[in-house]
Amino acid sequence: MELLDRECITNLPFRVIGIGEATKEIIETVKSYGYDCVSATVLTKPFECVPTDEDKMVIIVAKDNTDHANSIAKTFHDAGVLTIGLLDNADLECYDSVVSEASYTEYPDLTKALLQPIATQGMIAYDFNDLRTTLTDTKHFLVKSVTRCGKERMAEAIGCIKRSLTSSVLNKIERLSIFLYFNKVGKQPLVMQELATLSDSLSELPESIDVFWAVYPDESIKDEEIKITILAAGKELKNG
């Protein structure tokens, strides 16, 4: 019997597992983010990996080897680990939620969008429990990000997000997390009026949507920019 890949044994709470050599570049990019609480591994044959008591979330990434990805995902999902899929043709019963209509080139950014809120310190409380609530048993999720600068940056970013969420998509969203990123040492600091603008926009959302939001400093954001990222989830989003 072949031994499990040693790199698949970890005591970190959040894992990113690439299934097969085709995911190597994606996994290397994820490693470059430098999140201390995250392990990122490329899994090769025999494609076996088991959850540990420390596991809280796993992101399964695959370009091919879909059957192996589903099998590993089911092991984690059955163990009560929040199991997220970045792949095509996923067996939805093996995952809590799978990305809807994304290309392979987007997988590194999608992974960062999922990890950054729980791997970095925010100014408004948001933690893994909030992410778990957003994604658990939702079947499908999508991520959208908008960056804007200038005096009207908040209104412009919110407007762009709203235009991307057509009524047919909005009606299928069950849970929504919204993350605002800014450079705290920038020339244009975040002001209360901008937060009020964001808060007002949240009040316009359908009451049926469970909404979480948080604010994070991010030195990778340019001086006068803000970035808004939304994580939307719902069982019918695939048909949006």
Structural class: alpha/beta
Mean pLDDT over the residues: 91
> Radius of gyration, rounded?
18 Å
Sheet of most strands: 9 strands, mixed
Walk me through what this model shows.
This protein is an alpha/beta fold and 240 residues long. The protein is 30% helix and 26% strand. The protein is built from seven helices and nine strands. Strands 2-1-3-4-5-6-9-7-8 form a nine-stranded mixed sheet, sandwiched between helices. Helix 1 (24-32) runs parallel beside helix 3. The chain starts with 13 loop residues before the first strand and ends in a 7-residue tail after the last strand. The relative contact order is 0.14.
Q: Could you give a quick summary of the protein structure above?
A:
Helices cover 30% and strands 26% of the residues. It is of the alpha/beta class and 240 residues long. The chain has a nine-stranded mixed sheet with strand order 2-1-3-4-5-6-9-7-8, with helices on both faces.
